Amino acid sequence: KTKIPSIQDFEIIKPISRGAFGKVYLARKKTTGDLYAIKILKKVDMVRKNMVNHVLAERRVLSLSRTPFVVKLYYAFQSQDYLYLVMEYLIGGDLSSLLQNFERFEEEMARMYTAEVVLALEYLHNNGITHRDLKPDNMLITSEGHIKLTDFGLSRISIPEKSSLTFVKEENDGNDKKSFTKNNGKSSTKSLTDNKSTTNTASKLLKKQNRQSSKALLGTPDYLAPELLLGIGHTTAVDWWSLGVCLFEFLVGYPPFNDDTPQTIFKNILNHAIQWPPEGFLSAEAKDLISKLLNQDPEKRPSLSEIKAHPFFKDIDWEHIRQQPAPFVPNPEDEQDTSYF
Q: What's the average model confidence in pLDDT over 254-281?
């Protein structure tokens, strides 16, 4: 009989990232030396945040995942105070960090990532699972540079009262990004000053810190479909909305409803106030696909087959996408490198 592993079987090496629902650590299994990512969740927090179902959902999804598009779950076990999910470690980091470094992706790159996410969602939806928390942070990069989804069923966004506002949603970022459209399409960090390199580095560092701190809190409503925000019941169409938000952000460098506080983002989503870049910045195909995905009416968003047949994806070979060379291949220092996160 195989013994159920415990946390004692693993040596924790270092933290990888913090989500709204616990920390993820890089760990080595003592008997084999294999590396894993372990998500550690405090039970008392989970009961308090009414999250037990979410984690069970995540466990169910991950154990279903015999697919290259979803992060594998190897073990799930608990101690008196904690729940542990032992998952594969993907060394390439997440698309949120990659986007931070690139500022925005060329259309080819955005197309490939978006197509891989479409296939991952196809798999989930066929298995009766809605992701509900699709965003660049939850798209991880394999050592070959392809995409896998993580963090299912964890999306419970509560919009706090002003008094308890502990969000740090990239405030400088929000302003920087908005001025993008007012600067005739020049990215504002570039036009801030002649002393470019130091400012850029400083602003990148600041953005990274802010992004980190916003990751650690309960998330931002940036990627959530209006029907999820309104709590009026939802279908798998919420994931297609989020995909539209991600595609916009990949190509433009900021999410379409971005603002300084969760409240204003919330309002922008419900008012459908999309901050389009200057005319001609996006290709006609990209703009058309984004507009269709960001339809306020979930019934009117395109279906999977319509998405795959959209002209934006005309050069995508859906059957063999994993065999195509990836747009960015991580080049880590060693197998324990976590710098891409």
A: 95
H-state helical runs in 74-106: 95-102
Q: What is the mean pLDDT of residues 8-21?
A: 85
| Whole-number Å distance between alpha carbons of 88 and 84 | 13
Choice among 45, 81, 133, 288 that is catalytic:
133
The pair of three-digit structure tokens given for residue 311, joined into one six-digit string = 């002209």
Tell me which amino acid residue 266 is: F
CA distances from 132 to 4, 252, 324, 332 (A): 31, 23, 28, 31
Tell me the pLDDT tens digit for each residue of 21-74.
678 999 999 999 999 999 898 877 766 666 666 666 666 666 665 678 888 888
* Closest-CA residue to 20 (of 215, 166, 207, 265): 215
Residue 5, exposed/middle/buried by CB under 10 A (0-12, 13-18, 19+)?
middle
Which residue spans of the chain are classified as CATH 3.30.200.20?
A: 7-88
CA 132 to chain centre: 11
Does the domain spanning 7-88 belong to CATH 3.30.200.20? yes
Q: Are strands 73-78 and 35-42 parallel, antiparallel or unpaired?
A: unpaired
Q: CATH assignment of 95-160+171-323?
A: 1.10.510.10
pLDDT at res. 151: 75
Task: Work out the pLDDT band at 241, boundaries 50, 70, 90.
Answer: very high
Mark whether 133 is an active-site residue: yes
Mean pLDDT along residues 173-181: 31
Domain with CATH 1.10.510.10 in the chain: 95-160+171-323
Spatial separation of the C-alpha atoms in residues 176 and 254, rounded to whole Å: 9
